[in-house]
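request received
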Amino acid sequence: MERKKKTGFARYINLVNLGVFVVVTSVSLPIYWLVISSLKQPVAIGASPPQYIPSPFSFANYQQAFSQYGFSQYFINSMIVTVAATILVLGLGSLAGYGLARLPMRGKTTIMLTLLVISLFPGIAVIPPLYLMMRTIGWLNSYQALIVPYTAFNLPFAIWILRNYFLGLPKEMEETGRIDGASPLRIYWSIILPQALPGLFTAGVFTFTACWTEFLMALTLNNSNSFRTIPVGIALFGTPFNIPYGTIFAASVVAVVPIGILVFVFRKSVVSGLTSGAVKG
Amino acid sequence: MVATETKVTEATPTSKAASKKLRDRNQILLARLGWRFTTPSLLVVGLVTIFPISFSVILSLSNVTLSGNGFSLGGFTFNNFSILIHSSEWRYALAFTIFYTIVSVLVEVILGTMIALLMERLSGGRGPMMALLLLPWSIITVISAELWQYIFQGSYGVMQQIFSAVGLGKPVFLGSPTPAIISMMIADIWKTTPFVAVIVLAGLVMLPGDVFEAAAVDGCSGWVMFWKITFPLLRPTIAIAVLFRILQAFGIFDLPFVLTGGGPGTSTTSLAILGYKAMFQNLQFGPGSAVAVSATGLVLIGCLSFLKVFKSQVNSGE
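response:
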C-alpha cells in the first residue's frame, strides 16, 4: 500500500523538487555572483567573458574598501545609528504597546490605525520639511539627524508588533502582581517584559534591518563623508564613469553579514513579525 | 441578631457603591497611566512624521527660498502645483510610478503565491529555505541595485554573456528605456518576491487542514481545490501583502537612484526620484515639496481604498 502510494506520487514530488530547485537557484545565483565578484582580483572584475570562479581568489577588494574608501567609518556610523534607534524604539515602543494592549484608554483604535497608516508613508513625504528643519537647527551631518527620524519611523510598526504580542500574553501573572501591590511600572518591567522577549526580538530585528538598510534620509540628511552610513557610502563609491564594483561588493558582503546572521538566527521571529499583523518591507 | 442582619443589608449597597467608585477611580488612574506610557512614543512619532507631512503641504503651497542657514516662506501660492501639472516630467513620473507598481506587484504576488504553494508541499528543509528566501529581503536595496547594475552591465555584464550564449545577440539592458524598465522590475522582483512568498506561506500553514481533507475525499483536483478553497481562504493574507507592497512601491527611490539614476533620459524616474532631484540638485524646494505631496497623496488614496483591510488588521489582534 505504502509503496504504491509513493510511486504514484513520485512524479508529483519531482515536480515540487524541480520548482524548489528553480526557486533556490534564482534566489541564490545573484548572491553567489555578489560574493564571488568580491573575491576576484580588481582587474578581473571587468573581464569578458567573466570569471565564473575567481582565479586566483583575492582579498584585494576588501583591503581596498577599508583602506582606500574608508568603509570602516561607514560601518561604525551605521552601527551607532542603528543600535541607538533600535534601543530607543524598543524602550518607547514596549511602554506604548503595553499601554495600548492592557490599560483602559480611550481612542485606542484611532491611535492604532493612525500608527499603521504612518508606518506606510514613503520617506519622500517627510524629506522636504525634515531637511529644512534639520538645516535650520544645525543637525545636518550628525548622528541624531538619523537616530531621531529612524526612531519615529520604526516606532509605529514596533508598537504594532509589541501590542499584538502583549495581547496574547496570559493575564494571570499581572493580576497576581497587582494583588501583591506591585505598581504598574513594576508589573511592566518585571512581569511583562521578561515574558515578551520573543516579541521584543521580532520588533528589534525589524527595526535593526530597516535602519541598517535605509537610504533616502541618510543620503539627504547626512551627506558629509564622516557621517555617511553604509548604503550611502556604497552608493557614492567611485564616480559615474568608474564604478569600482569589486570594492562595492566587498563592502556589501561585510554589510550583509550582520543582517544575514540576525535574520538566520531569528528567522522564526521575522516570520512571526510578518504575520503578526502589519507587514512592512 | 436582627440588628446585625439589618446592619449587613444596609452595609452592602454602600460598600458596593464604594467599591464601584474605587474601581472607577482605579480605571481612571490606569487610563492616565496608559497615556503616560504612550505619550512619549506618540510625541516622537507626531513630531517627526505627522508634523513634517503636514508641513510639507504648507511648503508645497508656498514660495520657498533657501537662505544661508535657514529658509523662508513667501506667500501662499498654487504655483508649485501648476508647475507640476504643466510639466511633462511630473506626468511621466506619476504614470511610471503607478505602472511600475502595478506590474511589479502583480508579478511578485503571483510568483510569491506559487513559491509558497511549492514550499508548503516541501517535506523537509523548510527552515533553511525560509532563511534563504529572507536573504534578498534583508539585503540593503542599494547593494542589490549595484549588483544588478553589474549583472546588466553593457560591455562585460554576465547577463549579456548568457544572452549571447543562447544566441540572442548582445542586447542593451540599462542603456535604453524599455529594457531599463524591465531590468529594474527584474531586480525588484528578485528582492521582494521571496518576501511575499514568506507571508503567503505563513498564511497557508495556518489554514484549517480538515477542509482540504474533505475536498480530497470528495475528489477535488488540485486546480479546483486551489481556486475554490485555498485562494478564497488566503485572500486576506494576499490582500495585506498586496497592500503593503503597493504602498511601498509608490515611494520607490533606492533602486532607480542607484541602478539607473532615473534614466536613460527620464525613463525610470519615479515620483520620489523626481522630488529628490528637484530639491537636492536644482534646490527648488517648493516644486520639490509639491512632488513629495503628490506621492503622499497617492499613498493616502491607496490607504483609504483599503481602509477595510486596515480595520480588520486592528481587530485581528484583539
